[in-house]
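re the bet — no i am not wrong, look at it urself. input seq straight from the record:
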Amino acid sequence: MQYSELEKKIASAFFNFPRSKTVVKFIYQKLNYFFHKKSYTSRTKYDINRININDEESFFGYYGKSPLNQSNQYLLFHSSKHPTTLLPSNKFPIDIILYDMKNQNVLKKFPTFAYNWQQGSKLNWINNHTFVFNDYDKKNDRYIAKIIDANSKKNTHIIKYPIYDTHLNRAVSINFDRLNILSPDYGYRNKVNKTDILDSKNDGISLIDLEYGSSKILCSIDDVIDTHYTSSMDRAPHWINHVTFSPKGDKIIFLHRWGKNNKRYDSLILYNFRKNSITCISEGTMISHFSWIDNNQIVVYMQDKVLGLNYFHLNVSTKEKKVFHEQLLSKFGDGHPSFNSGLMIFDTYPNKSRMKELVLFDSNNNKMEIIGEFFEDFRYYKQTRCDLHPRWSFDSKNIFIDSVHEGKRYLYRIDMGVSKDEV
């Protein structure tokens, strides 16, 4: 059972006061689970397969990136020998697994010390045979990125900066130390020399050339602040997160957040490479997850002063905004949307039964389907939570999710072409 509109409004009222929200939310969720517990831990009509090795826990990371390469030959995922109910530790690594899908075997493991449970090491494919992930260089006390050729199974480049997102031979980078202090779900915990979180002049988004390894500041946090300054930003710690290239790579969008007096503020920012411009395209009390629909449009879950909390269709160039299929989607609340050829998949946060739903919405014909339900117990909470973070394969035939419905964190592949009813 999903939470009611009244319950969502009450939760929204607490959104900008995260400490109070955490305590109230946990107590309320515990009470609801007692009354609404289900007799099963997962349910789907589609063929679903767990992906892991040697009884280790596994996961891919964030939504919107395919673990499979374009030819469906290689699969990437993270593997952990240590319990993922515990916070990530800088004392032990996890492994990047390069997996052969045809022969069903591990080709090679690559250890990394730069990771978290929500986004892993920012593992992703650069092209059909090359992938990248972040690591920690202890000798030089810095985060780096390693580029691997899947065919040769060799590390071909080491970039002296961590990556956040990639497009062809370019990447964008942000300060993972700042994230670890201000939004630790997404930061890394390794560096000895810490960041001055009030220094917004010399910190921001960097653009990295993956071929030559060079880097330059694209925009500082001060540059972002200048686009939509308010008095709440004075002497406040600021951070940038969820930097995402547009499909053609000529734009990025990202969240600019800041906190003051135990209250958080959100804004959605567009950087246009062709115009070398920074624009605030939306700001408010709550802006959450988003996905590119095409090169100029996104779907974003956010709060509008008039229209309330919902998924919105937003044109990043004109700032035109409208509710995205309100009758079909408004009941689900916040989730992680991913688009592929008009097909949108998204997940939900745990409902009163601690079940998370995986939902498919076909925007071509306005049809919606609940793909499955997956249980998350209270051992996975806050920084150790396990959102489904659904991702399409490049050919849209498979959906990958991270889930803990079997009692541990695992990566799963859902074959959208095979229904259990047909087997």
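see?? Residues 18-36 form the longest helix (19 residues). told u. also The two ends are 29 Å apart (CA to CA). so pay up
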